[in-house]
Amino acid sequence: MLDAASEGIGLAPPHDSEVPEGVPERLDGIHAALQDGSQGTGCDPITGARLEPQPREESGG
Predict the structure, then answer these.
(1) 30 lies in a domain?
(2) Taking residues 2-27, what's their average pLDDT?
(3) Which residue from 9, 52, 1, 53 is spatially nearest to 34, judged by alpha carbons?
């Protein structure tokens, strides 16, 4: 399956356009979170169907 965790998907570097400062870094952070599983897409990876939102875990702080 092509997904962020298996490096089957990714982002091309910005080109032929001006990208606001900080946007590439934010996108890199999102991609890293998709890779490590701390961020989901909200879609079934096989069918693409929208998944029900999962409750967030409470942090211990």
Answers:
(1) yes
(2) 86
(3) 9
3 Cβ contact list (under 8 Å, min separation 6): 9, 34, 45
> pLDDT by residue (tens digit) across 15-60?
888 889 999 899 999 999 999 989 988 999 889 899 988 777 766 6
Task: Please state, in angstroms and rounded to a whole number, the distance separating the CA atoms of residues 54 and 51.
Answer: 9
Residues 49 and 19: beta-carbon distance below 8 Å: no
- Domain tally, the chain: 1
Specify the pLDDT at position 60. 60
Please give the structure tokens belonging to residue 49.
């169907």
Question: 3-class SS at 28?
Answer: helix
Domain membership of residue 29 as a residue range: 1-7+24-41
Backbone phi, then psi, for 43, in 5-degree steps? -125, 145
